[in-house]
Amino acid sequence: MLPPNWQKDSKEHQKAYKRLLEKGNKNKMLRVLPELHEEAFSKIDCLECANCCKNYSPRFKQPDIKRIAKRLKVKEGELVSKYLRLDEDGDYVTKTSPCPFLAADNTCNIYDDRPSDCARYPYTNEDVMVKRVGLTLKNATVCPAAFLVLERLLEME
Questions:
Q1: What are the backbone dihedrals phi and psi of residue 60, each rounded to the nearest 5 degrees, phi first?
Q2: Confidence of residue 4 (pLDDT cuts 50, 70, 90)
Q3: Would you tell me the crossing angle of helices 62-72 and 76-83 to the nearest 10 degrees?
């Protein structure tokens, strides 16, 4: 079960997570991630949360832009000018938070064509989890599933 104060707990455990991800046995972690990912998502309903969509933007890569523009029946340039901006890394991200494609019931209006970053988030079943420590630490404060996976990894240490 998800602790009611999971975000507070996640902030308090950031140093322990960082130490685990930087110094822990990466091969062992990678082996158990798929199982921990499934376990976490059996307890989390993304439609009840949507923190990721409410607070952050994925990167919209060119294939994403092309696919979404086609779905919305607009030109790629129109999609970009209406919804996206370039961030400090030169990536396209949404102009606004929450995501303009997030519906009132926390569903996604472009779900089948959403950016690959959205489909993969929070990367709890990928090597990104151990390779991009900063991103994982941030995700643990936003996504309860990422928090649960890191908590389980700490228990296994």
A1: -100, 105
A2: confident
A3: 100
Tell me which amino acid residue 71 is.
R
Closest CA to 101 of 86, 91, 115, 88: 115
Q: Give the rounded percent of residues in the chain with a pLDDT score beyond 90.
A: 96
Angle at 51 between CA 49 and CA 54, to 5 degrees: 120
For the chain, what percent of residues have pLDDT higher than 70? 99
Rg of the chain over all Cα atoms, to the nearest angstrom: 17
pLDDT at position 157: 83
Decide: 154 and 20 in contact? Cβ < 8 Å.
Answer: yes
Given a contact cutoff of 8 angstroms between Cβ atoms, the answer to whether 13 and 150 are in contact is yes
Name 21's Cβ contacts closer than 8 Å, sequence gap at least 6. Answer: 29, 129, 130, 133, 136, 137
DSSP 40-90: HHHH--HHHH-HHHHH----B-HHHHHHHHHHHTS-HHHHHHHHEEE-TTS
Q: Is it the case that residue 1 has pLDDT exceeding 90?
A: no
Q: How far apart are CA 94 and CA 85, in angstroms?
A: 6
Counting every residue, how long is the chain? 157
